[in-house]
Amino acid sequence: MSEKAEFIKDLSLPVIAAPMFLISGPKLVVECCKNGIVGTFPALNQRTSEGFEEWLIQIKSELEQFEKETGKKPAPFGVNLIVHPTNPRLEADVKLCMKHKVPLVITSLGAVSQVVNAIHSYGGLVFHDIIKKRHAEKAAEAGVDGLILVSAGAGGHAGNLNPMSLVHEVKKFFHKTIILSGCISTGQDIATALQMGADLAYMGTRFINTEESKAPEEYRKMIIEAGASDVIYTAAISGVHANFLAASLKAAGVSEEDLKKDRKIDFGKELNTEAKAWKTIWSAGQGVTTIDDVLPVSKLVKTLKTGFKNAIEEQYKLLEVFPKN
Ligand SMILES: Cc1cc2nc3c(=O)[nH]c(=O)nc-3n(C[C@H](O)[C@H](O)[C@H](O)COP(=O)(O)O)c2cc1C
Question: Where are the annotated coiled coils located (predicted)?
Fold first, then answer.
């Protein structure tokens, strides 16, 4: 029996629109699922567990309505939970995932078997994000169904490993679903991720620049204007290494010296500014380099499908040329 997630074969493209703090909400999730790709959001995008439950009810009812009206089965949706002692909502939010049978739970920071078992109890799946082999091994031991390999250049708390080595390293011991994350912004990138050995592509930054995201207009504009070297990897903003747009760092008065700090800057005390990580200092991955528009999700998925198909067809043609004796 295959150990890969069953739902993949029913998607319109092998894509998960990744959960993003302050960016993803019901509108984005529902639109992704209607278009056949997995939509997700962080539970913490709602300030309370009550608010989180409201979103779950809204998403489920809109997707049920869609299925009733069109006869088409939407893609499953997912929720991101921070599994860490500093998240006081974890227990309540896990219970809500169980109550509403959330199809996919994406855990970050901690992979613990209690959470995995709770989600498995109703048939849900757990994918866990990692940036290195050691974390992947621990998550595999906890029984997760998939590993999200967050490679160098990704938006948010990115890793610093090359995706090729990360995929190979993890595939040596993990035979369930492999999801690749980091700079995947085009249909060709999705095809490349699969060629590299992933089962699914995990796309964040590209979905900031959709009409359904919660990103302010200025943020999307900054993504369009940025190139890969306008993305700065630093621990000084959130306390953990993450990628941020240089222009938003500059606007907040963060200097190059500040960026070298190995700890979170106290913006108020040290820089006398009200700047806030994620809210006014904006994160994006190096995949900005191929993003030059803001699209509705339906149009973006269509474009991704065309790019994916073209890339595979082009690659297939290579067989007429290589390998040679
Ligand atoms: C603005 C922003 C916020 C993010 N917030 C979260 C989050 O709350 N939880 C999480 O697991 N990952 C978060 N991520 C990481 C994404 O889920 C995903 O791994 C990453 O965006 C993929 O790389 P890409 O942006 O290069 O496509 C965030 C990324 C961005 C850009």
Answer: none
